[in-house]
Amino acid sequence: xxxxxxxxxxxxxxxxxxxxxxxxxxxxxxxxxxxxxxxxxxxxxxxxxxxxxxxxxxxxxxxxxxxxxxxxxxxxxxxxxxxxxxxxxxxxxxxxxxxxxxxxxxxxxxxxxxxxxxxxxxxxxxxxxxxxxxxxxxxxxxxxxxxxxxxxxxxxxxxxxxxxxxxxxxxxxxxxxxxxxxxxxxxxxxxxxxxxxxxxxxxxxxxxxxxxxxxxxxxxxxxxxxxxxxxxxxxxxxxxxxxxxxxxxxxxxxxxxxxxxxxxxxxxxxxxxxxxxxxxxxxxxxxxxxxxxxxxxxxxx
Length: 301
Prior knowledge:
This protein has two domains: 11-211, Rossmann fold, CATH 3.40.50; 216-292, Helicase, Ruva Protein, domain 3 (Orthogonal Bundle). It is 32% helix and 17% strand. It contains eleven helices and nine strands. It has a seven-stranded mixed β-sheet with strand order 4-3-2-5-6-9-7, sandwiched between helices. Strands 1-8 form a two-stranded antiparallel sheet. Strand 3 (79-84), helix 4 and strand 4 (101-105) form a beta-alpha-beta unit. The longest helix has 17 residues, at 216-232. The protein is elongated and about 65 Å long.
């Protein structure tokens, strides 16, 4: 299954009840929504174990589908709030979990979840995410005014490996930096395609994120680091100093590279995070693009 978002089918492309539902009466998975439901109980158990919820926590589940993970979540005693795009599940989920979970219907990427962010107590997020929208969903959660304390998701194995990749490795890219500058990132177990129905073409993995508690000035610093990386990773095989000269020609990049002990011919994909942040500190404050000169950032990565 490709990680890019496929075109959605219109409701009219499903002609009749028999094609829309299985013999058990449950909705059939929709390819247009990237639905592959988990049938391996070990997966849900690991998600809950990594979340480690308590009765005072609130858990957001993205994409509950048939409710297999939802059942495990409500059994922890935590408050469960689930977001589901597929309204065919509404009658079953709202009946089955009445009084035990709250459901919001619609595309999580188009809803405004900010009013639902808990003001206090533990805040957790999890879900079996469609491959095509896993990354923007995670980014959306990390952009909330209060980030979850822990996030545990089932995503495509390839994407999970990119998320944990270190500078200088082939899998490293902008996603790696974006997540690791914002959170402690760990990869859990890998699950084969046979763990899902319908069976996808690739394996999945559990990804765990624990957002870092960063003051506003450090968030601004890391946002600037990401901006530098966005410039340097556009053309990965070119020397970083040349790409940066084009983006900010007023900066003496050769001198700054020497200052932070970076070779003149290095590429952006090979710069360690600590060195990247030192490079950020060396750039004159008035040289940054206007959006990155503010002392108080918007809080998002």
